[in-house]
Design a protein that fits this description.
It is a single chain. This protein folds into 2 domains: 348 residues, Peroxisomal Thiolase, Chain A, domain 1, CATH 3.40.47.10; 239 residues, no CATH class. The chain has 19 helices and 17 strands. By secondary structure, the protein is α+β, with helices and mostly antiparallel strands. It is elongated, with a radius of gyration of 27 Å.
């Protein structure tokens, strides 16, 4: 049986000229002090989380533009200096020599040369003259994933082949002093320089064994990430919509994993391109995995910045050095870039019989199959929504606090108040029913996931229809109708009029428990049981008087929870499109400078404690002392 290709331990080299975040901010403020949106630019750069970047030239020389010809020469000189040691290390990691390599895939989006650098490598580093060459120059950051996939294809086509991937990205040589748009200034503080290499082999080695590969392009986005070619060279263009593309790509990752019989939210490791922190945060949210799952990609971003196609290779290197996963562990590798293109591979970890992982230290070179298997299934898996953005926990807490605050005004007390609080906690995550990877969509597996997919399509995507006044009205009307319809059914009897209310109750109770990390799948079962009992006894479903009219409490809980959710999202930098579909304008409750960034210190250490304190105080207020 043919052995599937394995990506061996990569090697990464970064130049020794370092620029820190503080230097970047000070430089931006000095060079663009008259920029009308300078505070926003500085905040965006600071939010990247990039602490250090490495450059092939001293910072003062990078800031000078010597011309296209001179920059091309600098790129070639730097490549010839830095590539030999990183290739030598990658070959050593795989236990191979240059003569063992059958093909070289060379990726770089930061310069152009003909012939490709592969010709120089073959002529000078001992590769055979019949080594196949595959340069990839126009896939940008996605090229790291594309190189792995093309190596996978070559190894499958020619069993036993060894393919060398080489990434050479000197983003600083694309700096354009005259570009002052927000996207360009953000990029100036985000991208760094690095070279990387890795061997993909059909032999038995330790590493990521690719088992399925796939590519996907989001239609109509080809101008979102691009180079404008001008007399002064490449001018990078970055659309403000790019950070939100994970909303569209996460379902694709799920489909690729599902085609292999796996759940993308239950894999053991993730190696993904870290284009920026929002990419990783949104993947965490939409795939339903802990932010810690992307720690290796985030470490690359923090220490080196966005090093384009080399990110996935460095993140994989960090996975090796952190302690390789157990043999058979399942994982995903993905690169994202212009197009908007995703290059993806799923596979498992090979224990191999080859070279053990080795730590080369800081790589500074002076420039001077089941779904998943029951044995792996985590039946009481902790609810990973604890780390999502904006946290499902806080949305549920805000709904609970809101109902606890106004419940007495509705003359709802005792167990009825407690049931209303639990229901409104579930309604607090109801707007996220427009995202298949959200807390509420995961409550009952395929059933709620499929329903969320339908809502996602009908509402225009995440944070669109269900986060608008119209969406709140529609879902509230549905819950209200369900509550009103069952109101005439005598206690302790069954009628089909109870079914809609039962479905709403089950969804809200279970979603509230899941968002608050109560019981995992046991919490889902508890929610269904509680829904059946409440429905049978008519707890919380009795009609109450509001503004002189009798209304179904189920509708009131839904409205309060959804409004609390939207109010919370309006305190973040993104805001909410309240008037959608009439307008896509995103409204906020707070002035821009003091809006919170979700899943950061402000939410964990300010918002969450305040909500918990408020809920505790309300519980104390409404609890009789005697």
């Amino acid at each position: 049986m043919q052995s599937l290709p394995v990506v061996c331990q990569p090697a990464v080299v970064v130049p020794d000229h370092v620029v820190t975040m503080d230097q970047t901010l000070a430089l931006t403020e000095r060079l663009h002090q008259d920029h009308p949106r300078l505070p926003l630019v500085l905040r965006l750069i600071a939010n990247t989380g990039v602490r250090t970047r490495h450059l092939v030239l001293p910072l003062a020389e990078v800031l000078r533009h010597p011309g296209v010809e001179a920059r091309a020469a600098l790129h070639q000189q730097a490549a010839r200096r830095l590539l030999p040691p990183v290739i030598e290390q990658a070959l050593g990691n795989a236990g191979l020599t240059a003569a063992d390599i059958d093909a070289i895939i060379y990726v770089s989006c930061t310069s152009f040369a003909m012939p490709s650098m592969t010709a120089w490598l073959i002529n000078n580093l001992g590769f055979r003259p019949d080594t196949r060459q595959l340069p990839i120059a126009q896939l940008g950051c996605a090229a790291g994933g594309a190189a792995v996939n093309r190596a996978y294809d070559l190894c499958l086509a020619r069993p036993g082949s060894n393919v060398l991937i080489v990434s050479c990205e000197f983003c600083s040589l694309c700096y354009q002093p005259g570009d002052a748009d927000i996207g360009s200034l953000l990029s100036d503080g985000l991208f760094g320089d690095a070279v990387a290499a890795a061997v993909v082999t059909g032999q038995d080695r330790a590493g990521f064994r690719a088992e399925r590969s796939s590519s996907y392009l989001i239609p109509g986005t080809e101008d979102w990430i691009c180079f404008a070619v001008k007399p002064t060279g490449f001018h990078f263009r970055l659309d403000r919509r790019v950070p939100r593309t994970m909303e569209q790509l996460a379902p694709v990752l799920r489909e690729v994993s599902a085609a292999h019989g796996w759940d993308a939210g239950l894999l053991d490791f993730y190696i993904v391109h870290a284009g920026g922190p929002r990419i990783l945060d949104d993947l965490s949210k939409f795939l339903g995995v802990s932010p810690d799952a992307f720690r290796h990609s985030r470490a690359t971003l923090t220490e080196y910045g966005n090093i384009a196609s080399a990110v996935v290779l460095d993140a994989l290197r960090r996975l090796f050095l952190a302690g390789a996963p157990r043999p058979g562990a399942t994982g995903l590798l993905a690169g994202f870039g212009p197009g908007i293109t995703a290059e993806m591979a799923v596979g498992s970890w090979s224990g191999g019989a080859g070279v053990a992982a080795r730590d080369a230290g800081p790589e500074h070179v002076p420039f001077s199959r089941t779904y998943p298997r029951l044995t792996r299934a985590r039946i009481f898996r902790p609810d990973i929504s604890w780390g999502l953005v904006m946290l499902g926990r806080d949305h549920a807490l805000s709904g609970a606090v809101a109902f606890a605050a106004i419940g007495p005004l509705l003359h709802v007390t005792g167990t009825h108040l407690l049931a209303g609080v639990a229901l409104t906690a579930g309604a607090g995550v109801l707007p996220d029913l427009d995202e298949p990877g959200s807390t509420i969509a995961r409550s009952f597996g395929f059933l709620t996931g499929a329903f969320a997919w339908i809502v996602h399509k009908l509402s225009g995507g995440h944070r669109k229809g269900t986060h608008s006044l119209l969406g709140i009205a529609v879902l509230t009307a549905g819950a209200y109708a369900a509550g009103w319809w069952q109101a005439g059914v005598p206690h302790g009897t069954f009628s089909w009029h109870l079914v809609p209310a039962g479905l709403v109750l089950g969804l809200l109770f279970s979603s509230g428990f899941r968002a608050l990390r109560v019981g995992g799948h046991f919490g889902d079962a508890l929610g269904l049981a509680l829904a059946a009992f409440v429905l049978w006894q008519h707890w919380d479903l009795d009609l109450v008087t509001l503004a002189g009219r009798q209304v179904a409490v189920l509708g009131v809980c839904t409205a309060i929870g959804m409004l609390a959710h939207v109010a919370g999202d309006m305190c973040t930098h993104d805001g909410c499109p309240l008037l959608y579909p009439l307008s896509r304008h995103e409204f906020g409750l707070l002035p821009e400078p003091i809006r919170i960034t979700t899943n950061k210190l402000a939410e964990h250490w300010v918002v969450t404690p305040l909500l918990l304190a408020a809920l505790a105080w309300l519980a104390w207020r409404d609890t009789p002392l005697t």
